[in-house]
Amino acid sequence: MTASAGQSSDERRTRLLTNAAVSLRQFSDVLTPLGDRFAERGFSLFLVGGSVRDAVLGRLGTDLDFTTDARPADVQALLRGWADAVWDTGIEFGTVSASRAGHQIEITTFRADTYDQVTRNPLVEFGDTLEGDLVRRDFTVNAMAVRVGAGGEQEFIDPLDGMADLVRGVLDTPSLPEVSFTDDPLRMLRAVRFVAQLGFTPVPRVVTAITEMADQIQRITVERVAAELDKLILGEHAVEGVVALTDTGLAERVLPEIPGMKLAIDEHHQHKDVYWHSLTVLQQAIDLEESDPDLVLRWAALLHDIGKPATRKHEPDGGVSFHHHEVVGAKMVRKRLKALKYPKAVIEEIATLVFLHLRFHGYDEGKWTDSAVRRYVTDAGDLLPRLHKLVRADCTTRNKRRAQRLQRTYDDLERRIAVLAEQEDLQRVRPDLDGNAIMELLGVPAGPVVGRAWRHLKEVRLDRGPLDRDEAEAALLAWWQEQPDRPGS
């Protein structure tokens, strides 16, 4: 790869350009034939945007974004016979998508859009120059390009000096941030997302513009907001991203429960700052992840205490209590994530973890009965491994002896669970009699009575453990004798 004239030659810049060349060499099976096809027809092709940024950072994935002077119909024709699949979902915006050997490819015709400044939808206009296309992008670090020519030739192009900002680890806009964010307010949320993903710092003028324009984020659909929030929470620097989200005022508009955790602490009622405690729990949960980032665990860690402000009570002895904050918090999680149109299953998993995160604190030096341990496991279900991590992450005390005691106590609970799991299938606790056996023994047809009996037997199973057939039938008959709607009662 050759750098365009006027580029800086400092050591880090050279090293990053070398990183990009190495990264792109691994994609030659896609880049070279694509460059050849476009060049043969007299068109220019450029790898652009986040693909170039990630190549420079050595983190390029299989999604490749290109821009070109070819019009969409020409792009479609060039891809036919080469790509495994071609589709035109975004063709009204000048984008043709394709897949090839596991790579996802998007090729967009040069754009010179204008915006109605009411929605974030551009009034699509095709452009004639690469520079005009780059200047309309969100941040300078995403406004770099690599020309992909015939025979694998490549040239790095950086008219807005995005490399300098990348080297410094800062986010700046190609044009005035107020203009950029008015055109597309989602860019404000993308800025804090890049803080979380890349560890970059927005320059002061960007921070000022976001803070002053935070209300504009309400022009964005909740689905797009939720998508950016997920990318933020999954970032390597998620805590820093949440701080930026809060400090700029964006959180107040899209997830107000987070800044709502900033409780005032006075000299007479000392307690942990819930906001910073939650950020610490989030980081500790991240540290406990075993492989890929866990979306459900991270959201549960951040939101586990959002019920505290609504349940805070100053006690006569000068202390502060938050009774039932886990119950209130679970309800708040469901309400907020439903408003953001999260999938029902994801909402329920996060809310369940929030609801259960405090239960362990009733486990005092192993005094729980086997029944209580079974209920803990059963209520957590498939979420149990995440619940283990959340509870351990929730220990943020600076008192080392107390922290060690809490961890030892949870170690003991996990041992108890393991012992019981060897004796019975704790993850799938079911009554010792099925519906058919219940109907036969009680002489009742299928209906609500069978459901009530089944639930009672499950409670007996949780309390007493596995029962043999005679014990289960005796327990069912004893319960049946107490039912007021039993025939002949």
From TrEMBL:
It holds the Pfam family HD. InterPro entries: Bact_CCA-adding_enz_type3_sf, HD/PDEase_dom, HD_domain, HDIG_dom, NT_sf, PolA_pol_head_dom, PolyA_RNA-bd, tRNA_adenylyltransferase. Residues 396-423 form a coiled coil. PROSITE patterns: HD (PS51831). Gene3D superfamilies: Beta Polymerase, domain 2, cca-adding enzyme, domain 2. It is an enzyme of class 2 (transferase). Its EC number is 2.7.7.72. GO terms for molecular function: CCA tRNA nucleotidyltransferase activity; metal ion binding; nucleotide binding; tRNA binding. One of its GO terms (biological process) is tRNA processing. Residues 274-384 form the HD domain. Keywords: Coiled coil, Magnesium, Metal-binding, Nucleotide-binding, Nucleotidyltransferase, Transferase, tRNA processing. CDD domains: HDc, NT_ClassII-CCAase. This is CCA tRNA nucleotidyltransferase. Its cofactor is Mg(2+).
